[in-house]
Amino acid sequence: MLHPVVLSGGSGTRLWPLSRQNQPKQFLSLIGDRSLYQETVLRASGLPGAQAPVTVCSDDHRFMVGEQLQTVAVPSGGIVLEPMARNTAPAIALAALHVLAGDDDATMLVMPADHLVEDEAAFREAVARATDLAAKDWLVAFGITPDYAETGYGYILRAEELAPGGFRIERFVEKPDLPTAERYLAEGTYAWNSGMFLFRAQRYLDELGRHAPAILAAARAAYATATADLDFIRVGAEAFAASPSDSIDYAVMENTDRAAVVPVSCGWSDIGSWSSLWAVAEHDADGNRHEGDVISVDTRGSLVRASERRLIATIGVEDLVIIDTADATLVARKDRVQDVKTVVDRLKAAGRSEHLFHRKVYRPWGSYDSIGVGPHFQVKRIFVKPGAALSLQKHQHRAEHWVVVSGVAEVTCDDRVFEVRENESTYIPQGSVHRLRNRGSTPVELIEVQSGSYLGEDDIVRLEDVYGRS
Amino acid sequence: MLHPVVLSGGSGTRLWPLSRQNQPKQFLSLIGDRSLYQETVLRASGLPGAQAPVTVCSDDHRFMVGEQLQTVAVPSGGIVLEPMARNTAPAIALAALHVLAGDDDATMLVMPADHLVEDEAAFREAVARATDLAAKDWLVAFGITPDYAETGYGYILRAEELAPGGFRIERFVEKPDLPTAERYLAEGTYAWNSGMFLFRAQRYLDELGRHAPAILAAARAAYATATADLDFIRVGAEAFAASPSDSIDYAVMENTDRAAVVPVSCGWSDIGSWSSLWAVAEHDADGNRHEGDVISVDTRGSLVRASERRLIATIGVEDLVIIDTADATLVARKDRVQDVKTVVDRLKAAGRSEHLFHRKVYRPWGSYDSIGVGPHFQVKRIFVKPGAALSLQKHQHRAEHWVVVSGVAEVTCDDRVFEVRENESTYIPQGSVHRLRNRGSTPVELIEVQSGSYLGEDDIVRLEDVYGRS
């Protein structure tokens, strides 16, 4: 059976300031309302005979994965948590072990979570070709037929045809310089290495054991002690840490003699930068892509994205990328967006947090947004999902005032449990044990005013937590 | 005696989004910590023998004028409120009547509130020359010696010298085209019309009566019914409305045969656009002027201004103006900033408010900032100055929760009066009569959560107000 495996390990910063470490590219709605991750799981689960997709992601993103799956009503085939980043070869090994546990003849379709595929029919047809090859024990890479001389991707050179539309791989080549990329394009036998693969799970493990036994051993040891926690599969962290960090390309595909490629032209993009997002998005007559509240005068070839409650006005500019968020705005020349990395490096070096978190932070129970700060106070706007509850907790250094502005909150404060309704408030004294819960069917929204000498997120003692965080 | 008269009637939008109708250019800290208005009154009051400056401003800006005077400890010679805008000739007439009421030989130095003068010594020296001419009943315009061929100003052509450094005016000329401006510059007998004037108040009224009697009549009638309200002088609105709207240049200076010009080179700028602010500000080695939290990579010749709690990052851009505020950000090519007007026109046409108000709104008692809004609620951060009080008021459609985060608030709620201290809260039910007062010597800061079906600023009934607004 076909088991889609979605690799969501990336924490890329190339789309900063929208992409942050705790909410990377794959979870953002970059084109349309759904995130790239949601588009990927929908694409996967729409394939004929596909089982519920397995996701491999970092522990930090587990609740976001769960919520995004739920929102698009895609059943989960399991969310495997990588204890730490070890690149794709070990991640795929964990997924292979996981699918084999339920299906000893499992075939895996490996898909990065952050790619765009515009032509789903062409993709489905390529999957069918790849499935035939996988049945003959080939490890199949999807190769994107290049339509221009891109220097930012690795390429795959094909050899003889094994079956209609499927070829043995002659070799993988690194990112070329421009003349080389132009030659590859002209020769017609090269394809971009998309990072998508299809193979029998057991065959992958066999080849991994042959060419990278330390990775296989570490993955097996880590998976042997796996525990299920809600929808999440936690593997042994110490065992996994012992794995070499390597990509499937280096560890397996470049070494096996069973590597095949299925070329496909399916409107694929990895949206690796703001300029490539601009390129794949629809434009107006002036070549602009505007999102949100934008007023533009004599503006051309630009991507402008305004954030909530904010207006962006542009005058006389050309080929710019303007990305506005609650706490940071990027203004870059479109052909210089690769230098977003420089900005992120400066943020890191300065010990700042704008590359880590958005002002609005998602939690398993909902979200909070820090809308005001002062010397001894902070104001947060808090959403609690229906049925959700924050942990039973206390703070050493702050008191909290809660004003409910929507829904009905159930509040625990030391030994009292009571309801607080819209336009009602309550007070949580410093040091008191408290919990906020939404037992209703509509979201609870409240304004929290924190008051105290220290207001960091780390002033929290969790006594109980329905999400296993205590 | 010399009475400085500061004209603060402008509500220009050329520096949008920083400049808004309720907080125009003259009240902004564009260079350094003080506003242009504050720099102007300090410059005026530092002149030898100068009396306390008179300000002419719109009713909307009266509290801002009062507060800005107080902050720089300049005594007020009166704040004359224009009931409506009627251009400079009537405004100066009101000021002339006002200074003559206390000094029947008053000399006036008329200064727009929004100009920059970098060389105060040169300015003082020019004032001395102008004072000598005014004593001989000349109406003196200050002419700025041009240092480049500017096409955005009117020019003054001088005739024969009347006294050292003082000339009869041959004629005023309109904004020239570039070849004409270049010729003016080469000829050396033209100066920019700065909008600054010096003359005996009675002489101005005499000439006004001769050349624009309807303006004089309206100003006299309006001033005849003037009343003092705190520090403010309110003139008759109906009478003033009858005045033709005209500038001192058209109404008087171009018609009188007693017009003189004192040329001066004093580092003058009217900061009429973002590009002229960039030009007068200090730059770094790359020609950039950064204010606030800015990270720039390969950026040149740009003015970048970040607002509070927000980061602006730029990459690879050149000659841009980037002005960030709490609710709107402008990104414009530096040589296209005159089109800010187009953006403001679009805001007006759309019935929006981003050209009228900042998110943070100043009031006589302090300020409020709308930090969060939702379907049936709004969160405001409120500052109340020491000794200040909001009006005794009630709201038909909303209740308010107040959480004090700094200082001690005295709260009136129906027939109770009580104190609310830091980390305490209170509730103002819908329809109840309430007041917030700061009797302490430190500011009160509080978070207000409004809850109700309608949250507009106009849902207020003022029962008593110490600022005369009820």
From TrEMBL, chains A, B:
Positions of the Mannose-6-phosphate isomerase type II C-terminal domain: 351-465
Residue span(s) of domain Nucleotidyl transferase: 4-285
Start and end residues of each MannoseP isomerase/GMP-like beta-helix domain: 292-347
This protein's record includes keyword Zinc: no
GO biological process: GDP-mannose biosynthetic process; polysaccharide biosynthetic process
General function of this protein: Involved in xanthan production.
Name the record gives this protein: Xanthan biosynthesis protein XanB
Organism this protein belongs to: Montanilutibacter psychrotolerans
